[in-house]
Each structure stands twice: as C-alpha cells, then as structure tokens.
Design goal:
The chain is of the alpha+beta class. It contains two helices and four strands, in the order αββββα. The strands form two sheets. A two-stranded antiparallel ribbon has the order 1-2. It is elongated.
C-alpha cells in the first residue's frame, strides 16, 4: 500500500463519518416530529457503510484485492418500533389520546455523535501523520 492509498483511506473515513454525523443531526432535529410527508412519525435513520475493496495487479502479475477505505452504502430506516405516548392534547392524538412518537432516543443519538466525532478526529490525526511522513520523505533528497 502506498502513501497516497493511505491518504485515500483516511479521506474516505472522513467522508463516511461526516455522513454519519449528518444522519445523526437529522435524527436529533426530528426527535419530536409526529407527522411527516408519509403521514406517520419520523423514523430514525442509520448510515450503513461497507469496506471498499479495489482489485489491482500485483508485481508478479496476479490479481490482488486490497482495501481502499470505506464507502456509504445506504441510509436506511431503523426497524425499531415507534413508541405510543398518551398525550390527549396533541394535534396528532388518536381517539384514545395516544400519539405515535418517533423512535429517536436522544441519549443514543448523542453517544453515536460522540463516537462519530472521535472517529472523525482519529482519521484527521492519521491523515496529518501520513502527510507529515510524505513531507519528511521529500526532505530526504535535500
């Protein structure tokens, strides 16, 4: 793996974590949304990633598969049930006074946001370390 491959891996991690943070932000913003365009409550979104593999040709001429980072596959809806809350004064309450609320747990979202932020910071640190190694390599010829 070359130095530029390492930088591509770090930047793909930054892109993935940014998407994850945007998804979490949308969840937090809609934590109390009981009516969407589809008519029901907001459903929590989850960013889905997978390893991005590249097929290359090795020095001996054979195929070689190596990691090229991570890529976003989809942003899918959570399968968790939306809770039913008794609130007869709410405009979206049914005849029994129950309101179907979003399945967003703010505590879970904040923890996910902190984890994503730490992963983003780790990718920035690794990217800066790689950049520093490249600069030091260029100074060898001086």
């Amino acid at each position: 793996m070359g130095m530029f491959s390492a930088m591509n891996i770090h930047t793909s991690g930054l892109t993935a974590e940014r998407l994850r943070m945007d998804t979490i932000s949308a969840n937090i913003a809609n934590a109390e949304t009981t009516r969407t365009e589809n008519g029901g409550p907001y459903i929590r979104k989850i960013a889905v990633f997978q390893e991005h593999l590249e097929k290359t040709i090795s020095k001996n001429g054979g195929p070689q598969i190596q990691s090229a980072g991570v890529k976003a596959v989809a942003v899918r809806d959570s399968s968790e049930e939306t809770p039913l809350v008794y609130n007869p004064g709410h405009p979206d309450a049914d005849e029994n006074g129950n309101v179907r609320m979003p399945n967003v747990n703010l505590l879970t979202e904040m923890i996910d946001m902190m984890i994503s932020r730490r992963a983003y910071e780790a990718n920035v640190t690794a990217l800066n370390a790689t950049k520093g190694m490249l600069l030091k390599t260029l100074e060898i010829g001086k």
